[in-house]
Amino acid sequence: MLNSILSITLPVFVLIGVGYLTARFKLLSEQVGEALGQYVYVIAIPVLIFRTLSGVDLGGQSPWALWATYFSGILVAWTAGTLVIRHGFGREARAGVIGGISAGFANTVMVGIPLVTQVYGDDGLIAILVIISIHLPMMTIIASVLMERAAAIDNQSKPAPIAAQLKKIGKSLATNPIAIAIVCSLVWRSTGFPVTGIMEDVLNRIAATALPVALLSLGMSMVLYGLRGNILPGLSLSLIKMLLMPAVVFVMGAYVIHLPPLWTCVATLTAACPTGVNAYIFANRFGTGHAMSTNAITVTTAAAVLTCGIWVYLVEFWRAGL
After folding, report:
1. What is the pLDDT, as a whole number, of residue 59?
2. Overall number of domains in the chain
Protein backbone atom coordinates (compact mmCIF):
# COMPACT_ATOMS: atom_id res chain seq x y z
CA MET A 1 0.00 0.00 0.00
CA LEU A 2 2.82 2.40 0.87
CA ASN A 3 4.46 1.89 -2.54
CA SER A 4 1.22 2.63 -4.36
CA ILE A 5 0.70 5.79 -2.29
CA LEU A 6 4.24 6.99 -3.04
CA SER A 7 3.68 6.34 -6.74
CA ILE A 8 0.67 8.65 -6.55
CA THR A 9 2.05 11.44 -4.35
CA LEU A 10 5.72 11.47 -5.42
CA PRO A 11 5.15 13.00 -8.90
CA VAL A 12 3.63 16.07 -7.21
CA PHE A 13 6.81 16.74 -5.26
CA VAL A 14 9.09 15.74 -8.12
CA LEU A 15 7.55 18.60 -10.10
CA ILE A 16 8.27 20.96 -7.20
CA GLY A 17 11.85 19.66 -7.20
CA VAL A 18 12.16 20.23 -10.95
CA GLY A 19 11.01 23.81 -10.46
CA TYR A 20 13.50 24.30 -7.62
CA LEU A 21 16.43 22.93 -9.65
CA THR A 22 15.38 25.00 -12.66
CA ALA A 23 15.64 28.18 -10.60
CA ARG A 24 18.68 27.08 -8.56
CA PHE A 25 20.76 26.42 -11.70
CA LYS A 26 19.26 29.44 -13.46
CA LEU A 27 17.87 27.48 -16.40
CA LEU A 28 15.03 29.98 -16.25
CA SER A 29 15.26 33.45 -14.76
CA GLU A 30 13.57 34.63 -11.57
CA GLN A 31 11.26 36.76 -13.71
CA VAL A 32 10.02 33.64 -15.52
CA GLY A 33 9.21 31.99 -12.20
CA GLU A 34 7.26 35.06 -11.10
CA ALA A 35 5.41 35.12 -14.44
CA LEU A 36 4.46 31.44 -14.09
CA GLY A 37 3.20 32.10 -10.58
CA GLN A 38 1.11 35.02 -11.81
CA TYR A 39 -0.32 32.91 -14.64
CA VAL A 40 -1.33 30.19 -12.20
CA TYR A 41 -2.83 32.59 -9.66
CA VAL A 42 -4.59 34.96 -12.08
CA ILE A 43 -5.69 32.61 -14.88
CA ALA A 44 -5.15 28.85 -14.53
CA ILE A 45 -6.36 28.17 -10.97
CA PRO A 46 -9.38 30.53 -11.26
CA VAL A 47 -10.38 28.74 -14.48
CA LEU A 48 -10.01 25.37 -12.77
CA ILE A 49 -12.15 26.58 -9.87
CA PHE A 50 -14.81 28.01 -12.18
CA ARG A 51 -14.94 24.87 -14.33
CA THR A 52 -15.34 22.62 -11.29
CA LEU A 53 -17.63 24.67 -9.05
CA SER A 54 -19.98 25.78 -11.84
CA GLY A 55 -21.20 22.22 -12.19
CA VAL A 56 -20.46 20.82 -8.74
CA ASP A 57 -22.76 18.23 -7.18
CA LEU A 58 -22.29 17.70 -3.43
CA GLY A 59 -24.46 14.60 -3.45
CA GLY A 60 -26.76 15.97 -0.79
CA GLN A 61 -23.91 16.63 1.64
CA SER A 62 -23.82 19.90 3.60
CA PRO A 63 -20.63 21.94 3.18
CA TRP A 64 -21.04 23.28 6.72
CA ALA A 65 -19.85 20.02 8.25
CA LEU A 66 -16.74 20.08 6.06
CA TRP A 67 -16.04 23.71 6.93
CA ALA A 68 -16.52 23.05 10.66
CA THR A 69 -14.10 20.12 10.48
CA TYR A 70 -11.37 22.00 8.64
CA PHE A 71 -11.63 25.26 10.58
CA SER A 72 -11.47 23.36 13.86
CA GLY A 73 -7.97 22.31 12.82
CA ILE A 74 -7.11 25.89 11.87
CA LEU A 75 -8.35 27.18 15.23
CA VAL A 76 -6.23 24.72 17.22
CA ALA A 77 -3.10 25.14 15.07
CA TRP A 78 -3.40 28.96 14.94
CA THR A 79 -3.85 29.17 18.72
CA ALA A 80 -0.93 26.81 19.35
CA GLY A 81 1.32 28.72 16.96
CA THR A 82 0.47 32.05 18.55
CA LEU A 83 1.04 30.76 22.08
CA VAL A 84 4.38 29.15 21.15
CA ILE A 85 5.71 32.36 19.63
CA ARG A 86 4.25 34.74 22.22
CA HIS A 87 5.01 32.78 25.39
CA GLY A 88 7.54 30.15 24.31
CA PHE A 89 9.81 32.58 22.48
CA GLY A 90 8.69 35.84 24.11
CA ARG A 91 7.90 37.70 20.88
CA GLU A 92 5.60 40.68 20.37
CA ALA A 93 1.89 40.43 19.52
CA ARG A 94 2.39 40.90 15.77
CA ALA A 95 4.92 38.05 15.67
CA GLY A 96 2.40 35.92 17.55
CA VAL A 97 -0.14 36.45 14.78
CA ILE A 98 2.49 35.55 12.16
CA GLY A 99 3.14 32.39 14.17
CA GLY A 100 -0.56 31.57 14.07
CA ILE A 101 -0.75 32.16 10.31
CA SER A 102 2.37 30.05 9.71
CA ALA A 103 0.91 27.16 11.73
CA GLY A 104 -2.65 27.30 10.38
CA PHE A 105 -2.61 28.71 6.84
CA ALA A 106 -2.12 25.79 4.44
CA ASN A 107 -1.03 26.14 0.85
CA THR A 108 -4.38 24.94 -0.43
CA VAL A 109 -3.95 26.27 -3.97
CA MET A 110 -0.38 25.57 -5.09
CA VAL A 111 0.00 22.23 -3.25
CA GLY A 112 -3.45 21.23 -1.98
CA ILE A 113 -5.28 21.20 -5.31
CA PRO A 114 -2.58 19.26 -7.23
CA LEU A 115 -2.02 16.79 -4.39
CA VAL A 116 -5.68 16.07 -3.67
CA THR A 117 -6.47 15.78 -7.38
CA GLN A 118 -3.58 13.36 -7.87
CA VAL A 119 -4.70 11.16 -4.97
CA TYR A 120 -8.50 11.38 -5.12
CA GLY A 121 -9.34 12.65 -8.61
CA ASP A 122 -12.26 14.94 -9.43
CA ASP A 123 -14.31 13.81 -6.41
CA GLY A 124 -11.51 14.94 -4.13
CA LEU A 125 -11.09 18.15 -6.12
CA ILE A 126 -14.70 19.08 -5.41
CA ALA A 127 -14.18 18.65 -1.66
CA ILE A 128 -11.05 20.81 -1.51
CA LEU A 129 -12.67 23.51 -3.63
CA VAL A 130 -15.57 23.59 -1.16
CA ILE A 131 -12.94 24.29 1.53
CA ILE A 132 -11.16 26.91 -0.59
CA SER A 133 -14.46 28.67 -1.36
CA ILE A 134 -14.47 30.17 2.15
CA HIS A 135 -10.85 29.51 3.21
CA LEU A 136 -9.39 32.48 1.37
CA PRO A 137 -11.93 35.15 2.44
CA MET A 138 -12.21 33.88 6.02
CA MET A 139 -8.45 33.61 6.57
CA THR A 140 -7.80 36.97 4.95
CA ILE A 141 -10.39 38.68 7.16
CA ILE A 142 -9.23 36.97 10.37
CA ALA A 143 -5.53 37.51 9.70
CA SER A 144 -5.99 41.17 8.73
CA VAL A 145 -8.14 42.02 11.76
CA LEU A 146 -5.84 40.21 14.20
CA MET A 147 -2.73 41.85 12.74
CA GLU A 148 -4.25 45.31 12.95
CA ARG A 149 -5.17 44.74 16.60
CA ALA A 150 -1.78 43.18 17.36
CA ALA A 151 -0.03 46.19 15.83
CA ALA A 152 -2.12 48.46 18.06
CA ILE A 153 -1.10 46.42 21.12
CA ASP A 154 2.59 46.63 20.19
CA ASN A 155 2.36 50.36 19.49
CA GLN A 156 0.06 51.02 22.46
CA SER A 157 -2.47 52.70 20.22
CA LYS A 158 -6.08 52.13 19.20
CA PRO A 159 -6.73 49.81 16.24
CA ALA A 160 -8.63 51.07 13.23
CA PRO A 161 -12.42 50.61 13.50
CA ILE A 162 -13.62 47.15 12.45
CA ALA A 163 -15.84 48.69 9.76
CA ALA A 164 -12.84 50.43 8.17
CA GLN A 165 -10.79 47.24 8.32
CA LEU A 166 -13.56 45.17 6.73
CA LYS A 167 -14.01 47.77 3.98
CA LYS A 168 -10.31 47.58 3.18
CA ILE A 169 -10.37 43.78 3.19
CA GLY A 170 -13.50 43.76 1.01
CA LYS A 171 -11.77 45.89 -1.63
CA SER A 172 -8.83 43.47 -1.61
CA LEU A 173 -11.08 40.41 -2.00
CA ALA A 174 -13.09 42.11 -4.76
CA THR A 175 -9.98 42.13 -6.95
CA ASN A 176 -8.69 38.69 -5.92
CA PRO A 177 -8.79 36.31 -8.93
CA ILE A 178 -9.70 33.27 -6.84
CA ALA A 179 -12.51 35.08 -5.03
CA ILE A 180 -13.81 36.36 -8.38
CA ALA A 181 -13.71 32.83 -9.83
CA ILE A 182 -15.69 31.46 -6.88
CA VAL A 183 -18.38 34.15 -7.21
CA CYS A 184 -18.59 33.73 -11.00
CA SER A 185 -18.95 29.95 -10.68
CA LEU A 186 -21.80 30.34 -8.18
CA VAL A 187 -23.55 32.88 -10.42
CA TRP A 188 -23.15 30.64 -13.48
CA ARG A 189 -24.42 27.63 -11.55
CA SER A 190 -27.51 29.56 -10.45
CA THR A 191 -28.46 30.14 -14.11
CA GLY A 192 -28.67 26.39 -14.74
CA PHE A 193 -26.72 26.71 -17.98
CA PRO A 194 -24.27 23.85 -18.64
CA VAL A 195 -20.64 24.42 -19.57
CA THR A 196 -20.44 22.76 -22.97
CA GLY A 197 -19.03 23.07 -26.47
CA ILE A 198 -16.17 25.44 -27.24
CA MET A 199 -16.38 27.05 -23.82
CA GLU A 200 -15.91 23.70 -22.10
CA ASP A 201 -13.01 22.79 -24.39
CA VAL A 202 -11.18 26.08 -23.76
CA LEU A 203 -11.71 25.89 -20.00
CA ASN A 204 -10.48 22.28 -19.91
CA ARG A 205 -7.32 23.18 -21.85
CA ILE A 206 -6.44 26.05 -19.52
CA ALA A 207 -7.38 24.08 -16.40
CA ALA A 208 -5.11 21.22 -17.50
CA THR A 209 -2.11 23.55 -17.22
CA ALA A 210 -2.96 24.71 -13.69
CA LEU A 211 -1.59 21.83 -11.65
CA PRO A 212 1.82 21.18 -13.27
CA VAL A 213 2.59 24.87 -13.74
CA ALA A 214 1.55 25.60 -10.13
CA LEU A 215 3.99 22.99 -8.83
CA LEU A 216 6.83 24.18 -11.07
CA SER A 217 6.34 27.81 -10.04
CA LEU A 218 6.18 26.84 -6.36
CA GLY A 219 9.47 24.97 -6.72
CA MET A 220 11.07 27.99 -8.35
CA SER A 221 9.83 30.24 -5.56
CA MET A 222 11.49 28.04 -2.91
CA VAL A 223 14.87 29.40 -4.03
CA LEU A 224 13.68 32.83 -2.90
CA TYR A 225 12.54 31.68 0.55
CA GLY A 226 15.17 29.18 1.73
CA LEU A 227 16.17 28.93 5.40
CA ARG A 228 17.01 32.05 7.39
CA GLY A 229 18.28 32.73 10.90
CA ASN A 230 16.34 32.06 14.10
CA ILE A 231 15.38 28.58 12.89
CA LEU A 232 13.86 27.11 16.08
CA PRO A 233 10.58 29.12 15.95
CA GLY A 234 10.08 28.07 12.33
CA LEU A 235 10.71 24.42 13.17
CA SER A 236 8.24 24.59 16.07
CA LEU A 237 5.56 26.06 13.82
CA SER A 238 6.33 23.44 11.17
CA LEU A 239 5.63 20.62 13.61
CA ILE A 240 2.28 22.17 14.52
CA LYS A 241 1.42 22.58 10.84
CA MET A 242 2.50 19.11 9.70
CA LEU A 243 1.34 17.03 12.69
CA LEU A 244 -1.13 18.80 15.00
CA MET A 245 -3.40 20.49 12.46
CA PRO A 246 -4.08 17.42 10.26
CA ALA A 247 -4.50 15.26 13.38
CA VAL A 248 -7.20 17.58 14.73
CA VAL A 249 -8.97 17.72 11.37
CA PHE A 250 -8.92 13.92 11.07
CA VAL A 251 -10.32 13.35 14.56
CA MET A 252 -13.04 15.96 14.01
CA GLY A 253 -14.04 14.56 10.62
CA ALA A 254 -13.85 10.87 11.48
CA TYR A 255 -15.08 10.72 15.08
CA VAL A 256 -16.82 13.97 16.03
CA ILE A 257 -18.64 15.38 13.00
CA HIS A 258 -18.68 12.08 11.06
CA LEU A 259 -17.99 13.39 7.58
CA PRO A 260 -18.20 11.03 4.60
CA PRO A 261 -14.89 9.08 4.51
CA LEU A 262 -13.66 10.76 1.29
CA TRP A 263 -14.30 14.23 2.69
CA THR A 264 -12.47 13.31 5.90
CA CYS A 265 -9.48 12.14 3.87
CA VAL A 266 -9.45 15.26 1.68
CA ALA A 267 -9.81 17.62 4.65
CA THR A 268 -6.97 15.86 6.49
CA LEU A 269 -4.67 15.90 3.48
CA THR A 270 -5.46 19.57 2.85
CA ALA A 271 -4.59 20.36 6.47
CA ALA A 272 -1.32 18.47 6.07
CA CYS A 273 -0.24 20.67 3.15
CA PRO A 274 2.75 23.01 3.69
CA THR A 275 2.45 26.53 5.06
CA GLY A 276 1.16 28.93 2.44
CA VAL A 277 3.11 31.94 1.19
CA ASN A 278 0.46 34.16 2.79
CA ALA A 279 2.43 33.85 6.03
CA TYR A 280 5.41 35.63 4.45
CA ILE A 281 3.13 38.18 2.75
CA PHE A 282 1.67 39.22 6.11
CA ALA A 283 5.12 39.18 7.75
CA ASN A 284 6.46 41.45 5.03
CA ARG A 285 3.45 43.75 5.22
CA PHE A 286 3.70 44.27 8.98
CA GLY A 287 7.49 44.14 9.26
CA THR A 288 7.93 41.20 11.64
CA GLY A 289 8.30 37.42 11.64
CA HIS A 290 10.10 37.19 8.29
CA ALA A 291 12.49 34.44 9.39
CA MET A 292 9.91 32.27 11.18
CA SER A 293 7.45 32.46 8.27
CA THR A 294 10.01 31.71 5.56
CA ASN A 295 11.50 28.88 7.62
CA ALA A 296 8.04 27.40 8.17
CA ILE A 297 7.29 27.61 4.43
CA THR A 298 10.61 26.02 3.48
CA VAL A 299 10.61 23.26 6.10
CA THR A 300 6.99 22.21 5.58
CA THR A 301 7.33 22.25 1.78
CA ALA A 302 10.59 20.26 1.83
CA ALA A 303 9.16 17.74 4.31
CA ALA A 304 5.80 17.44 2.56
CA VAL A 305 6.93 14.59 0.32
CA LEU A 306 7.28 12.52 3.49
CA THR A 307 4.62 13.99 5.78
CA CYS A 308 1.86 14.15 3.17
CA GLY A 309 2.70 10.61 2.08
CA ILE A 310 2.37 9.42 5.68
CA TRP A 311 -0.98 11.16 6.10
CA VAL A 312 -2.30 9.64 2.88
CA TYR A 313 -1.21 6.22 4.15
CA LEU A 314 -2.89 6.75 7.53
CA VAL A 315 -6.23 8.01 6.21
CA GLU A 316 -6.36 5.32 3.53
CA PHE A 317 -5.58 2.66 6.16
CA TRP A 318 -8.45 4.05 8.24
CA ARG A 319 -10.81 4.18 5.25
CA ALA A 320 -9.97 0.61 4.22
CA GLY A 321 -10.96 -0.58 7.70
CA LEU A 322 -14.46 0.92 7.56
Report:
1. 65
2. 1
